[in-house]
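Quick one: co-fold with adenosine-5'-diphosphate.
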Amino acid sequence: MKWIKNNGRALVIISKQSPTWLISTSIYAILQGIFPLFGIYITAKIIDELVLFNNYEKIRFWVLVLILGTSLIQGMMQISKRVHNVSKEDLRLKLAQLLSNKTMNFDYSEFDQGERMNLYSQILQDENLSGWGLFQVMDYYESILFQWTKVVTALSMSYSLFTKKVSLESLQFINHKIFSIAFIFLLILFMGLSGFAVHNGLQFWLKAGDQGKLVNRKFRFLYKTLYDREKDMDLRIYDQSEHFSKIAKSNIVYMPDGLMGKYGKKQMGFALTVSPFFNGLALILTYIYVGTKAYGGAFEIGSLTQYVGALYTFYSGFAEALNRSSYMMANSEYLERIYRYLDWKNPMYRGSLTVEKRLDRKYEVEVKNLSFKYPGSEEYVLKNVNFKFRIGERLAIVGPNGSGKTTFIKLLCRLYDPTEGEILLNGIDIRKYDYREYMDLFSVVFQDFKLFAVPLKENIALDHPWEEERMVDVLEKVGFVERFSTMKNGFDTMIYKDLDDEGVDLSGGEAQKIALARALYQEKPFLILDEPTAALDPIAEYEIYRRLQEIISDRTAIFISHRLSSCRFSDRIAVFDNGEVSEVGHHEDLMERKGLYYDLWTAQAQYYNEEEKEKLL
Ligand code: ADP
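Sure, here it is.
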C-alpha cells in the first residue's frame, strides 16, 4: 500500500537523520502504552484479593509488584522522554535543512522553472498552514506506536472476559459464543465508523490543497515585498497598500468564507463531529456487556475494573490508531510531494574533470557558436556568439540593455548551460569539469549583488579565513577606507540593522564597494564585474578604473560596463548587440570602425565637457 510505503520512507529518512530520536521515541511510546494498563491490571488483582481476603501473602506480593513496576516504568519513561524531547528539536532542524539544502543545491536554472517553484511553495504551504509533511510523521509515529501498544496490551488483558462463564441461571444465555462475537463485532463496527468519519473529513484538506496552491506563493511574495526595505520606498511613494491587500484577498481558500470554511460547515464538519458519537456508543455497549457478566457472577469486582478499563483502553486506542492512520494516509500525498522534490534531478550535466590549478593563472576561454534561450522561453537571447580571450586579459563587454551581456556571464559561470554551442576552458568544454571546482574559479559582482546582515568582515571574507592585512588592502583598493574609519566597531561593524540596532546603513555606492572588496578578497583567478561602478559617483568610478590594473593584478577580468570610459583600460572589448557579438577589438580599433561602439561612445561623450573628458573618458 502506497501510504505505508511513503510513511515507511519517511521513517527511514528520520532514522538516518536522528536514530536517537527514533529509539527514544519508540521506547517512550511503548512504555506510555503499557503503563496505565499495568496499573489497572495489578490494581484489579489487589482488589480481587482484598475482596476474598484469604491470602495476605498474595496481597503483599501484588502491592510490591505495583510499587516496583510503577517506579521502574516511570523511571524509564522519564529518561526516554528526556532524550526524545532533546533529540526532537535537533531532528526538526535537520528535516527542515533537508529541503533547504536541496533548494540550495539546485541548478540556478531550476529557479526559472514554474513547476518546481510551485512544488516548493506547495510543500511550504502544506507545512506552515496545516503541518503536513515530514514533521507530521514525527508526531504520528509516536502516537500510533503508543496507541497500538495500548490496543495489544488491552486485548491480552481482555481475553479472559470471554472465557469466564456466568453462573446466574437467568443470565447464562450470555455465555453463548454468539454474544461474545456480537459484542466484538459491534465494538469493531463502532470503531470503524468513527475512524471512517475522520478519514473522510480529512479528504477535504486534500481537495482544497490544489486550489490553495497559489495562496502560499502569494503570501510569500507579499511577505517578501512588504518586509523588503529596498522595495518599501517604492511601495510608499506609489501608495501600493490597497493594491497589495487586494492581491492578498484574491484567493481565500483558507479564510472563514473560503472553500475550507464551507467544507467545515458542511461535510467535513459533520464527518469530524460524528466520530466521537460512535466512541460513546462503544463505551455504553462495554458497560452493558461487562456489567451483565459481573452481575451474573463470572468474575469478582476487581476484574470488572480490569475489563472495563482494558476494553475502554482497547477501543479508544483502536479508534485513535485508526484516526492516526487516517492522518498518515492523508499525509502520504503530502509526503509524495516532498519526495518528488527531494528526488528532483538537476538537469545540468556535472562532469568530474579536475580544473587545472595553474600557478601562473594562465587559462584560455573560447566561446564557440554559443546560442542560448532561457528555460521555458522560445526566444534566443544569445545567437551564435564566437570569441576567444586569454587569461590575464581584461575584457570589457558593452552593449545596449537587454543585449545579453549578463546572460553571457551567467553561462560562463555555469549558472546555465548553453542551448547550442559550447564554452571551452583550456580547450575543454566547461561542462566536463567538476562543477564546484569550476565555479571556484570565479569571483563575481552581479548587478543585483546582495550584502548580508552580518559583520563587515564576514561580508567580505565569507567563509574564507580572516586576514586583517588582506582585508585592509582590499578596502583600500576599492576606496572604502575613509568610510571604514568612521565605523565604530571596525571590521565587526554590523551591516544593516536587521540583527543589531548599531548596524550601519550603506549608500548604494558604499555597498557596491564592499561587494567589490568581497570579490577581490576571494582571490579567484577570474574576476567578473557586472556594472561594478553603476552606483558610484564619477570620481569614485574613475578611481576604481584608474587603479584597475592594481585591483585586478594577475587575474583575468571581465567587466560589463555602461560607462565606456572603463573600456580604455581593457585589452579587448566585445560589443553585444541583440544577442550577437557585433564587434571585438581595442578601443582604438572600434572607434575607427565607426560601428555600434563608436555610436555608444560618442553618445556618452557629449555629456562631458573637455576637462571631464580628459579625466573620465
Ligand atoms: P543585458 O545584461 O545586456 O542588459 P540580459 O542578459 O540581462 O541583458 O538579458 C537579455 C535578455 O534576456 C533580455 O531580453 C531579458 O529580458 C532576458 N532574460 C533575462 N533573464 C531572463 C530569465 N531568467 N528568463 C527569461 N528571460 C530572461
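If it helps, Strands lie at 364-372, 382-390, 394-398, 420-425, 428-429, 442-445, 526-530, 556-560, 572-577, 580-585.
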